[in-house]
Design a protein that fits this description.
Layout: H1 9-15, H2 32-35, H3 52-67, H4 71-83, H5 88-97, H6 100-106, H7 113-121, E1 125-127, E2 130-131, E3 144-147, H8 155-162, E4 173-176, E5 181-184, H9 199-206
Helix pairs in contact: 3-9, 4-5, 5-9, 6-7
Length: about 210
């Protein structure tokens, strides 16, 4: 899958809000959105009015950036959400939240989703006792996610857990910080997803 390799702070500036892609830096005065609250590039400070399509497109791009998902995979998730019972927009966000890299981030094992993705791809995480190194793996209620025993002395993981009180673990996940493991209690509800996403705009975009 194609991966954005340029400066991640440019993504936040393009969307005009913090996407928390750089972990602790996003909470400090060094955050680019705080210092330069305008779009990157030569014409970034020009004020432009978005069309209806432009507004829908920016909402989709922002959501993709939040979760670090490529266009092809994001459309696949939309199709999965459309085929499920219930509200398509809520289904889409539930699918994105159930990605393993996002769950690792929500548990506080990673300070950002990019770091959590790296932890998964480097083989630090197991699901139900088996190593899983695919960041897009979708967890389900009853699954047990844990740091592999051979990696539990990783200083980065320990530091992240110690500082994790700044970002509380959501109620749909039951964390055992002592054993570096957690259980997926249930599917996440829309009210528990704290990201500023207007999913109806994404549905309208893909429904055209």
């Amino acid at each position: 899958m194609a991966r954005y390799k340029d400066e991640q702070c440019r993504i936040c500036r393009r969307e005009g809000q913090k996407l928390f892609l750089k972990g602790c830096r996003c909470y400090s005065d060094k955050c680019s959105v705080t210092r330069r609250n305008y779009a990157p590039g030569q014409h970034g400070q020009k004020r432009t009015k978005l069309s209806e399509y432009g507004t829908q497109l920016r909402e989709k791009q922002k959501t993709r950036s939040f979760y670090g998902v490529g266009e092809k995979q994001f459309r696949k998730y939309f199709e999965m959400a459309s085929n499920k019972k219930g509200i398509t927009g809520t289904n889409l966000l539930q699918i994105l939240e159930s990605r393993l890299d996002n769950v690792v981030y929500r548990l506080g094992l990673g300070v950002s989703r990019p770091q959590a993705r790296q932890m998964v791809t480097h083989g630090n995480i197991e699901v139900n006792g088996k190593k899983v190194d695919v960041a897009s793996y979708l967890v389900k209620p009853g699954d047990v996610i844990a740091v592999r025993e051979a990696r539990r002395n990783n200083p980065v993981i320990k530091e992240n857990i110690e500082n994790g009180s700044k970002r509380p673990v959501p109620e749909w996940l039951d964390l055992d910080s002592k054993n570096l493991s957690a259980k997926v209690v249930r599917a996440v509800s829309r009210e528990e997803i704290d990201l500023p996403v207007e999913e109806h705009l994404i549905i309208e975009l893909y429904s055209k």
